[in-house]
Task: structure prediction
Amino acid sequence: MPSEDAAPLLDLDQILADPGVRIVVCCGAGGVGKTTTAAALALRAAEHHGRRTVVLTIDPARRLAQSLGLTELDNTPRQVKGIDVEGSGGELHAMMLDMKRTFDDVVLQHTDPAKAAEIFANPFYQAMSSTFAGTQEYMAMEKLGQLHARGEWDLIVVDTPPSRSALDFLDAPARLSRFLDGRMLRLLLAPARSGGRSMFSLVTASFGMFSKVVQKVLGAQLLTDLSGFVAALDSMFGGFRQRAEQTYRILQAGETAFLLVATPEPDAVREAAYFAGRLREERMPLAGLVLNRVHRLAAPELDAEQSRVAAERLTDLGGHEATADVLRAHAALARQAVREQQVAARFTEAFPAVPTVSVTAQPADVHDVDGLRTIGAAISRP
Result:
């Protein structure tokens, strides 16, 4: 069975201190500790390496705000006070993505006020900006591009959305482009660009018999809302694609470091391996794997079977119940540690060159800055 140190050891302090690294993207399945990892790394970059850092979270549970001592987070970076940066000169700012606000800001930036008001009032826009599949992931990419373009930060740490699949973060721009380039939208755009008669009459004329089928499926009002939305956003479509492509190129550049975050569970490791393969295909820089919540033994020389046998002997002798209970607990933990090593080995066997660091399971959840410091030290000094 491969050991945990079969893979190269991940040196996160070296990454955080490197001025050439401007973006760290934490990826992985939901519930593996991405938000805590991102916050801990951002805090360590500010306190230990003197970097002006912003951490962008998409976690709606607001755990990041609580752990950083902030009452709330919103779409604007807020400086975190009370951290130890006197010696380093660093700064830490935090923000939480508001996807609708980000979408609204894009509209305001790229259209005149009258056109923006028309777009905001459109029911289809209201639905898309709040609930459309992939909007959150796309807007995370949009916000990352905005932060990078401002040039105010030495380091941007991104906590990717809690999606069904972590790959949604990478796929969102292409999915949006496919939507914008789809056949139905091109048909809707054709009458919108021609001007003249009312939108719905033009759509109906363009579709002919097909429009009747669409109306039956979507409803006339929804079709009208959709065509109005397409017409209003027509001038922005190219900008959406262009910015998405620019951000994608940034993610492929050497200034970006992707960190996979997983726990030693089959689904989480499988997701991490799938993402690692995708990053390799897209030629994106994978810095390493952070394996969270790993269980370690205080007495690793005592294996599960030895503990079980010793516990049985003490039980037979009588009078040693407490010691026998400790041995049984050790046996259970030893078996769990072996299972975790076997699961983790599936990733290291598939990607033996990817550096890895294991973080010992903590006795309690992280709720404050001191907890984040503990996690940051555990990740950076394994």
